[in-house]
Amino acid sequence: MTRQGPLAQRLTAAVRSATAVETSGVEPIPADDREGGPGSSFTLWFSSNVQFSSLTSGMLATAAFGLGWTQALLAIVFGSAVGAAAIGITSTFGPPKGVGLLVQTRLPLGRRGAAIPAVLVFFKACAWFAVNSILGAFAVQTLIGTGFGPAFALVTVAQVAIALVGYGFIHLVQKAMALVLPLLFIGVSLYGYTESDLGSGFDPGKAGPLGFVGAFALVVAIQAARALSFSSYAADYTRYMPVDTPPRKLFLYAFTGTWLGSVWIASLGAAIGTIAFIGTPTDLVGQVLPGTLATVTMLALGVSTITSSCLDCYSGALAWLIAGVKMARWQAVLVVGGLGSAIGWFAGQGDYWKSFENFLIILGNWIAPWLAVMLVQRFLVPARDEEEPPNFGPGFASWLLGLLAAVPFMSQPGVFVGPIAESHPALGACAAAVAFLTAGLIHYALTRKSRTRATTRTTDTHEEIPA
User: Fold this and answer.
1) DSSP letters of 241-280?
2) What CATH number does the domain containing 343 carry?
3) Contact yes or no for 304/51 (Cβ under 8 A)
């Protein structure tokens, strides 16, 4: 037998560790089982944002809302930064306690209160699984010339398989894709940027009653919501990292990976949107890309949707367990995959675009106030040993009131349009921001007594120290 060198041995050991099926659920990860560094957050979030849903969210800016490419780029840069900051911050929640963010939600929202966001995250994950499965199936269908059914089955099985293995395998796959996907997307990027109309201006006809300000704000909101939706997952992929993982480095890696991947692919989508409206990956072949480049692009799109959607399957399963369902992690993965596949199968037969737009906006409306509560709890409320969280904590009321304050601003045509959004369409993109600010301020006010008691205890302790 040929003996392996030290480097080969380490690589072999790392691969074996990463491909071993994960046995942990939502319980805290013991210190002895912690490993990995903050750099893996860069590759995970970069790979997860180099995908067709990023392309389509950018395409909405020019093809649907009428922004010029430079205007769309500014909105994409800003919106992506908001979403990336949320992922960066929530990534730092994992190492200190060794549990995901939804578990930590029990402190401000209460035991039963925390179950409601967990259920919403579960259904959000199923919906994203469905969205990405549709997109991946379109790409595979075009690539291998099969029907929608076989392509859809291939994509969904691959996504579920990665999630079944678990945490280590997901990070390994994303590291590999951080190298592969840029190579696959470089061709369509060069073609898309050079053949599109980067000097295009604002089109009032496409924007309609939104006007320029409304269209710009809506693109920012959609782009932020797409990345923001991942923030509820972020700590799931850092909870195995050592307790002493530097939070600033972790934030920087997660933020940079998210922002770079999102801006690159969304701005490419905005560029393509100046010359064609792409409804599915198949349209890229028929309307934009030449032969060989189209084939490579279909491969890239198919692979990228699989590597992104496995996160939805994995984190959706954890959310289902946190909601109080008694089953093993692998069983919960199959539940998410099964329900997401059912949603995707039926949605894939209808109008994808309008559903996609509304879906992205709705996500930000309820996640934003929840995130505000978690940020206030983490950074402004003194840490304390909690014997047993109440059934419903102050954060639950803050979250609901934040969501309620956003209702008049909500704008999902065909679903619901609030009175303010109806009379002032340009304000229809403000719902998530209103929810975030309202929930954060209310939770800050409701937890004021906790801060006062903590200050009093600190003062009393200092007074007891003899001179």
Assistant:
1) S-TT--HHHHHHHHHHHHHHHHHHHHHHHHHHTTT---SS
2) 1.10.4160.10
3) yes
Measure Cα distances from 181 to 178, 265, 305 in Å. Answer: 6, 11, 11
Within a domain: 184: yes
Residue 279 Cα distances to 143, 273, 346, angstroms: 16, 11, 17
- Give the orientation angle of helix 39-49 with respect to helix 291-322, to 10 degrees: 120
Q: Please, where are the H alpha helices in 92-203?
A: 94-97, 101-104, 106-109, 111-144, 148-165, 167-195
Domain range spanning residue 190? 28-379
Alpha carbons within 13 angstroms on the beta-carbon side of residue 159 total 43
182 closest CA partner among 42, 331, 30, 77: 42
- Residue 251 inside a domain? The answer is yes
What pLDDT score was predicted for residue 441?
96
Phi, psi of 325 (to 5 degrees): -75, 135
Could you give the number of structural domains in the chain? 1
CB 439 within 8 A of CB 401: yes
Averaged pLDDT, groups of 10, the chain, 467 residues long? 54 63 90 90 94 84 92 96 96 95 93 92 89 83 83 92 94 92 86 87 90 92 86 94 96 97 94 78 66 79 86 95 92 94 74 56 79 93 72 94 93 80 85 93 87 54 40
- What sign for the dihedral angle of Cα 235, 175, 340, 225? positive
Query: The tokens of 288 are what?
Result: 């934009």
Instruction: Look up residue 197 and give its DSSP letter.
Output: -
**Closest to 267 (Cα-Cα) out of 67, 82, 429:** 67
Opening angle at CA 109, ends 104 and 110, nearest 5: 85
Give the number of other CB atoms < 10 A from CB of residue 314. 29
Backbone angles phi, psi at 277, to 5 degrees: -100, 110
Task: Decide if 59 is inside a domain.
Answer: yes
Position 464 scores a pLDDT of: 41
Q: Is 209 in contact with 76 (CB distance < 8 Å)? A: no
pTM: 0.87
d(CA 329, CA 324): 12
Token couple for 78? 């800003």
Query: Reduced to 3 states, what is the DSSP secondary structure of residue 430?
Result: coil
For residue 394, list its beta bridge partners: none
β-strand partners of 411: 417
- Chain CA centroid to CA 238, Å: 15
Phi/psi for 262 (5° steps) reads -65, -50
Residue 65 lies in a domain: yes
To which residue do tokens 């691969």 refer?
A: 15
